[in-house]
Amino acid sequence: MPAMQFHKPTSLDEAIALLASDPEAMPLAGGATLVAMMNAELIEPSALVSLGAIDELQMVEAAADGGVRIGAMVCHAALAADARLAAGHAVVRQAAAEIAHPTVRNIGTIGGAVAHGDPSSDLPAALVAADAVIEAAGPAGRRDIAAEDFFEDYLTTALEEVEMVAAIRLPASPAGAAGHYEKFARVHGDYATLSVAVMLAMAGGECSFTRIALAAAGPKPVRIEAAETRLVGSSLDDGAIADAANLLVEASDPVDDVRGSAEFRLMLVPRLLARAIAVARSQTEGGGA
User: What is the reported pTM?
Assistant: First the structure.
């Protein structure tokens, strides 16, 4: 077996050119997921193209309209500590804080977590709830992909050959919005048995806006607009939440695995949804993040 090549480009264009020149090469972000897959002999890249020296991928930038742009190489720990991810964007900050353990959070990156498309990982559902946009870069240039469209199936994303995640954009959240990420796992630091990501806003005692996504409830994050429609205009009473939960359960297709049965996961949906909504609502009323 030939020796693996290692490249460390200093620009995104250089990285894309290296990947385009070798179809067996793979981009290396933090390596938290990629190296584990290599150790398990699930993948055998001919070369690794490190993204660690590309400055534009390292930045978090707040936009004038209240949106936030996050470079693909920003690590989970930095996201979890970034006060700019407030109000509705807090759902992303909280999801980053729930990933594994401090060592992994200091190594793993948002771009790597997004590119692998694991439905049990924390960030994909949070990004769908936040209505995020994935910036993909490849030989043909750059394009935007809505997070909801980006995650297509189990470990399958909308990235084309030689494309990579360059950044994630969070649009400005609605006025007064808050977000919350509620996770159930066997032990702290494990992948989710089930998680609920919620962003919502209140006006006059009624829900004026919400987006909800589930992690580990199917082969990709589960979002169903009918559940959100049921909540908008309600006081977020128990009946409305129960109806929304039922709609989410109907749209879910979880698996049986070591973290829980499909039946158990579905049982968690109404409980975690109610808890996530209660916390997010308390933040809208209290003015916190």
Answer: 0.94
Burial of 23 from C-beta contacts in 10 A (0-12 / 13-18 / 19+): exposed
Alpha helices for the chain (secondary structure H): 12-21, 34-39, 76-80, 90-97, 102-107, 110-116, 122-129, 147-150, 225-231, 238-251, 262-286
Domain annotation covers residue 144:
no
CB proximity list for 233: less than 8 A, separation 6 or greater: 206, 207
pLDDT for residue 42 is more than 90:
no
β-bridge partners, 109: 75
Question: Could you tell me the residue range of the domain that residue 28 belongs to?
Answer: 5-50
CA distance 198 to 178: 8
Q: Is position 213 within any domain?
A: yes
CATH of the domain at 36: 3.30.43.10
Q: How many residues does the chain have?
A: 289
Q: Which sign, positive or negative, has the C-alpha torsion 46, 35, 117, 60?
A: negative
What does the pLDDT average to over 182-204?
Answer: 97
Q: What is the pLDDT of residue 2?
A: 63
C-alpha dihedral over 12, 13, 14, 16, to 10 degrees? Answer: 90
**Long-range CB contacts (within 8 A, 24+) of 140-144:** 142/166, 144/169
